[in-house]
């Protein structure tokens, strides 16, 4: 056993890396190194996204200047789904491998996801009045997004209601996984049913249905919001893990 | 860490079973509620459903180009909603949303008129404009329209 095959070596190194990152002390030093990069990406992407979206991008042919709320609404809605997906993966990791860090990621992501869901609903509502003619309608997209907001609230409430830490983590993780059913429903609601909300503009595999001059600021805003989530999550995790180890 | 021992494998299977069962249950529920979740009837569905006069529902479709008639001295508007298969005349009295245009989508809430049973007219009390997922500058739109 002097020569390990390359693949096996890489695998074992990945495993060592993950093992380290997932244990709180190593996580701190890893997060410390990443934080400035996330801040740099956040500032640069937000600056370009805001200037590009609010000033450089041309007005829409149908909605005029009013379409610019898209540059806030779409990233918020995207993050509300992405954060929940991150929480669901963390919940599964936590339940299977009993990782303290995974439960912490799940718990600390919830308020962030809730805020983005709330913002997506509010900006969408403000956009809906001038364009559709109503602040709110019980169509499948809007209703399933509202259910997501209640899911986030329920997750936070359940976690804080249980005094036993281990029990709270496990029960919340199961609730997060059950609630994950809502995520594909939100995404596909506009395809499965008749809705007032229009279909997806951004496509992963096909060209997006938005002019390139309008698209790039939107992508920049989405990147900026993701970087913000990473920054906020790292800070919240650091605080939570420290206070937890201090309490023991 | 990422290797699964016996206990962890069992937990993984439990979770997979949970997710699978949930997906199945949600799928069946949503499938059976399909008619209630749809926000509006298309003209074809509305004609097929044969709802009584006075029963409120939403009718959605494309505003047929060239079909909008505005009455003089009144807010009364007449237009035709179409799903490109069947079409239905709609009457509405009130202010239309900005994005209500010929050729664009619109959703009308109201009920069948009671007057003449032979020619069905939908009396709307509220009109919502539906826009699509395409965004582009005006110049690009004009160019596309020329083609």
Quick structural gist:
Chain A is an all-alpha fold and 248 residues long.
Global mean pLDDT of chain A: 90
Low-confidence stretches of chain A: none
User: Which fold name fills CATH's third level, the topology of the largest domain in chain B?
Assistant: OB fold (Dihydrolipoamide Acetyltransferase, E2P)
- Range of strand content of chain A: under 5%
- The CATH architecture of the largest domain in chain B comes to Beta Barrel
Written overview of the protein:
The complex is a heterodimer of chains A (248) and B (147). Chain A is mainly α. Chain A has one domain (38-59, 66-241). Helices cover 78% and strands 0% of the residues of chain A. Chain A has eight helices and no strands. Chain A has helices at residues 6-21, 24-56, 70-97, 100-131, 140-161, 165-179, 182-192, 212-247. In chain A, helix 3 (70-97) packs antiparallel against helix 4 (100-131). The longest helix of chain A is centred in the C-terminal third of the chain and has 36 residues, at 212-247. Chain B has 147 residues and is of the alpha+beta class. Chain B has two domains: 6-35; 39-130, OB fold (Dihydrolipoamide Acetyltransferase, E2P) (Beta Barrel). Chain B has helices at 6-32, 34-37, 43-49, 138-146, and strands spanning 57-63, 69-70, 76-82, 87-93, 105-112, 122-130. In chain B, strands 1-3-4-6-5 form a five-stranded mixed beta barrel. In chain B, strand 2 and strand 3 form a beta hairpin. The interface between A and B is large, with 45 and 44 residues.
């Amino acid at each position: 056993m002097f020569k390990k095959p390359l693949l096996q070596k890489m695998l074992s190194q990945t495993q060592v890396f993950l093992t380290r990152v997932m244990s709180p002390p190593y996580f701190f030093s890893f997060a410390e190194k990443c934080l400035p990069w996330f801040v740099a990406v956040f500032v640069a992407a937000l600056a370009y996204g805001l200037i590009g979206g609010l000033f450089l991008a041309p007005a829409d042919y149908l909605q005029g200047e009013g379409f610019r709320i898209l540059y806030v609404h779409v990233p918020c809605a995207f993050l509300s789904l992405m954060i929940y997906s991150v929480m669901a993966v963390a919940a599964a990791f936590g339940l299977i491998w009993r990782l303290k860090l995974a439960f912490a990621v799940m718990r600390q992501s919830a308020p962030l996801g809730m805020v983005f869901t709330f913002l997506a609903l509010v900006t969408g509502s403000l956009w809906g009045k001038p364009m559709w003619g109503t602040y709110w309608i019980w169509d499948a997209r809007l209703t399933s997004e509202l259910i997501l907001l209640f899911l986030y609230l329920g997750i936070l409430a359940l976690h804080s209601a249980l005094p036993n830490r281990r029990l709270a983590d496990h029960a919340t993780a199961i609730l997060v996984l059950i609630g994950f059913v809502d995520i594909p429903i939100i995404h596909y609601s506009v395809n499965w049913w008749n809705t007032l909300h229009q279909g997806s503009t951004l496509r992963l595999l096909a060209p997006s249905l938005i002019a390139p001059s309008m698209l790039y600021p939107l992508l920049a805003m989405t990147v900026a919001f993701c970087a913000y989530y990473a920054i906020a999550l790292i800070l919240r995790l650091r605080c939570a893990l420290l206070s937890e180890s201090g309490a023991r | 860490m990422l290797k699964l021992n016996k206990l962890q494998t069992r937990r993984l299977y439990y979770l997979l079973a949970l997710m699978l069962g949930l997906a199945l249950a949600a799928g069946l529920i949503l499938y059976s509620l399909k008619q209630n979740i749809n926000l509006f009837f298309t003209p074809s569905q509305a004609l097929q459903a044969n709802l009584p006069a006075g029963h409120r529902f939403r009718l959605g479709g494309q505003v047929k180009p060239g079909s909008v008639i505005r009455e003089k001295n009144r807010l009364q508007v007449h237009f035709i909603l179409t799903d490109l298969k069947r079409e239905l005349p709609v009457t509405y009295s009130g202010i239309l949303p900005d994005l209500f245009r010929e050729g664009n989508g619109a959703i009308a809430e109201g009920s069948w008129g009671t007057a003449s049973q032979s020619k069905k007219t939908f009396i709307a009390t509220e009109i919502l404009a539906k826009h699509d997922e395409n965004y582009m500058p005006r110049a690009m739109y004009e160019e596309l329209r020329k083609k």
